[in-house]
Specification:
By secondary structure, this protein is an alpha+beta fold. The chain has a single domain, classed as P-loop containing nucleotide triphosphate hydrolases (Rossmann fold). 31% of the residues lie in helices and 17% in strands. The protein has six helices and six strands; from the N terminus they run E-H-E-E-H-E-E-H-H-E-H-H. The strands form three sheets. It has a two-stranded antiparallel ribbon with strand order 1-6. It has a two-stranded antiparallel ribbon with strand order 2-3. The protein has a two-stranded antiparallel sheet with strand order 4-5. The longest helix has 19 residues. The radius of gyration is 18 Å and the shape is globular. It starts with 19 loop residues before the first strand and ends with a helix. The N terminus is likely disordered.
Length: 177
């Protein structure tokens, strides 16, 4: 096998696990388009992200509510010159935890060793969003698999390539209106 020089390797190929990013969007206008997009996302998460195979290659899927076990989670709050680690009970507490200026965080980074449950946690967050159990104020939840993104893809392009049907009758700009 030919060795590829390090500088020519894709950064996505170096990751030993799938890397997901979750984007939370609250939309105040254009209810029809946001409702359509929300339905597409909910269906995609139900049929793809939240399906847990019984074993690799199995056609039998397990129910997320039956198999999910809360993992040990710590929130790391970074302040100038200080890092504070706070243990939380579960992922819903993590998503509802406000920062020091009493705002919900604009982004979350989930880190951990391979196989510790990062991807399953992401799927559980999407699953609970579908059911209305977490992120109730979030109109749209975009969970993107960074490994599936090309080096030149924007987040908007990734949303349409990974999550929405090709025949969607709206654009990302429509969601911003």
């Amino acid at each position: 096998m030919e060795q590829v020089p390090r500088q020519k390797r894709s950064p996505y190929l170096l990751l030993p696990f799938d890397l997901f990013i979750a984007i939370f969007i609250t939309i105040s206008g254009n209810d029809e388009i946001s409702s359509q997009c929300q339905e597409f996302l909910r269906e995609h998460y139900k049929t793809d992200l939240c399906k847990i195979p019984q074993f690799p290659g199995s056609k039998n899927d397990l129910n997320m509510d039956d198999i999910y076990t809360d993992i040990a989670i710590e929130i790391e709050l970074t302040e100038p010159g200080n890092v504070v680690r706070i243990p939380v009970v579960d992922h819903s507490e993590m998503l509802g935890r406000k920062t020091n200026n009493s705002e919900l965080p604009s982004r979350l980074l989930v880190t951990g060793e391979g196989g510790c449950g990062k991807s399953t946690l992401t799927a559980k967050i999407a699953h609970d969003w579908i059911k209305g159990e977490v992120l109730k104020n979030i109109t749209l939840l975009f969970v993107l698999n960074m490994r599936k993104m090309g080096p030149q893809d924007s987040l908007e392009e990734a949303v349409f390539k990974q999550l929405l049907p090709k025949d969607a009758r709206f654009t990302i700009e429509d969601l911003h209106r």
